[in-house]
Amino acid sequence: MNEKLPVLVGYATAAGSTRGVAERIQARLREAGLAVTCAPLGPELNLQNFRAWVLGSAGHNMAWLPPAIDFQTRAATTPRPCWV
């Protein structure tokens, strides 16, 4: 895996609070010296552009939001370290 690729801190939010959490995680990872991209989860994200993923989602009815579930489904075919 290419260590020069950034880590994705991806999020799915309904009201914005999950984005705030993702931005705090991004800041801490950058403080640790990592290249980091913080972005909403969606089909336009190319999984190959990241060396690892940190994923979060708002929960509605005890489930993640559809963009986060869709990303995880796509990610199942692309081995990367992943934290949720």
Q: Which short descriptors sum up this protein?
A:
two-stranded antiparallel ribbon; single chain; alpha/beta; 30% helix; 84 residues; four-stranded parallel β-sheet
Number of strand segments: 6
Radius of gyration: 12 Å
**Strand content bin:** 25-35%
| Unreliable sequence segments | none
Lateral strand order in the biggest sheet: 2-1-3-6
- H-E order: EHEEEEHE
Q: Helix amount, in percent?
A: 25-40%
Q: Structural class given helices, strands, pairing?
A: alpha/beta
Describe this structure in words.
The chain has 84 residues and is of the alpha/beta class. 30% of the residues lie in helices and 27% in strands. It contains 2 helices and 6 strands, in the order E-H-E-E-E-E-H-E. It starts with 6 loop residues before the first strand and ends with a strand.
